[in-house]
Amino acid sequence: LTLHGGCDCSSIRYKVTIPALSSRPIAFTDKTSGEDHHFPQSFLDHCNRCRRVSGSIMPAWLTVPQEWVEWTLTSISGKKVVSRMGDLIRVPNKDEPSSLPVTNYISSPGIRRSFCSKCGTNLAFVDLERDMGGGGDVAKVDIVLGSLDRESLEVEGVWPRRQEYWDSGVEWIKKLVTEGDGALAGGGSGSGNGRVPRHPEGE
Q1: What are phi and psi of 132, to 5 degrees?
Q2: How confident is the model over 79-103, as pLDDT tens digits?
């Protein structure tokens, strides 16, 4: 299975090659059931910082091993550079001009949030302390789920399977994702009837 995605201007493209289940490493083990959950993992994110940085009321992520992802970056000269994570999360020195269309925002120590420097699309998140592997851990990356191509978003199993940082969430947003837009029809109180209007073409 291969998923494709990238930024809005296509200066950054990526593909995620997902192997057969038997070859997928364990992402985490459920502490209650003891069940192993394998990569890839998708989740909704109620973290306040991720909400603000992404500009989305409900960020969603696809977490995969870094070795599954191939990034293609189109340089200023038009040359296509195919790479793994190194070029994406590298932060150049202030006096070193970069020819690659990547900007990394260090939102807190060790955190890299990668954006296309041309169109501004938020693409990836890496915690350099947690996500770079070593000690038996898998090097992984969180890819913004909405940056997947439409065809890849419609692949069965890509949709989020859990919600993280729930306790940090905004109440009306939590109602929206658990109860549907009917929860907003009463001004966010959940007391309204029906649902908010749905316009087929944005008007």
Answers
A1: -95, 10
A2: 999 988 877 887 776 655 578 899 9
